[in-house]
Design goal:
alpha/beta, Rossmann fold, 7 helices, 11 strands
């Protein structure tokens, strides 16, 4: 893809079909002219991010310390993860110096031992507070806040996804869209937001459990819009 914007997708983790869905995500972002490289090696990926070759970084992984209860003990040896100071500096510097960052779905759960991450993303998952109903139908509705990320994106339904709720959000986060789990309705919750961080831009999309969600036409358009805005 000649002249494409380079994007690095950081992925991998438990409970989600990341190998398949990361490939689908790369296809969605190709609609915006992005050429994506995909890696499950978070630290090595962030090291290459520091070389300055990527205009966009995408965090679509489920990598955290797994010290939040016995439920995850069997997975901790393989998937438990604490981001190194060098990795933190690489990601923060990428955005601060003008790069784009797309955080998708479980990316908001990642790096739970890095409290300053919320300052970059505008919101994170908090164990013991945040949650989601069982996976099922989700209704996504744009708010009244006009933004390029939502251009041409109407309200839409996802056949199956996870609607996150009670995230730890900064006071200045203004949602561009909300999500409501229609089979377990506990209200609508912020699902998509965009923000600036120093010289860079960030978009967070709490949806995207799998390929079917990502490739739903309106969701796909939202993601392509996000990539364009993050890299313009």
């Amino acid at each position: 893809m000649s002249g494409a914007v380079r994007n690095l997708i950081l992925t991998g983790g438990i409970g989600h079909p990341f190998a398949d869905s990361a490939a689908a995500l790369a296809g969605c972002l190709a609609d915006a002219g992005c050429r994506s490289d995909v890696t499950e090696d978070i630290e090595a990926g962030l090291e290459t991010l520091a070389w300055g070759e990527y205009r966009l970084a995408t965090l679509y992984a489920l990598r955290w310390t797994m010290t939040t209860g016995e439920k995850y003990t069997p997975h901790r040896a393989q998937w438990g993860f604490a981001l190194s100071p060098r990795g933190r500096a690489a990601l923060e510097s990428h955005v601060a110096q003008g790069g784009g960052l797309l955080v998708l779905h479980t990316g908001l759960i990642c790096f739970d031992d890095w409290p300053d991450l919320r300052d970059i993303t505008g919101g994170v998952w908090r164990w013991g507070v945040s949650s989601h109903p069982p996976r099922g139908p989700v209704h996504v509705a744009p708010t009244q806040m006009p933004h390029p990320v939502m251009e041409g994106v109407p309200a839409f339904d996802l056949a199956e996804d996870e609607a996150y709720q009670d995230l730890d959000l900064l006071a200045d986060v203004t949602p561009l869209a909300t999500a409501r789990a229609t089979a377990h309705d506990k209200g609508a919750w912020p699902a998509v937001w965009a923000r600036g961080y120093q010289k860079g831009r960030v978009v967070c999309d709490t949806l995207g459990h799998d390929r079917r969600s990502l490739e739903t036409p309106s969701h796909r358009r939202l993601l392509a819009n996000a990539a364009r805005w993050l890299t313009e």
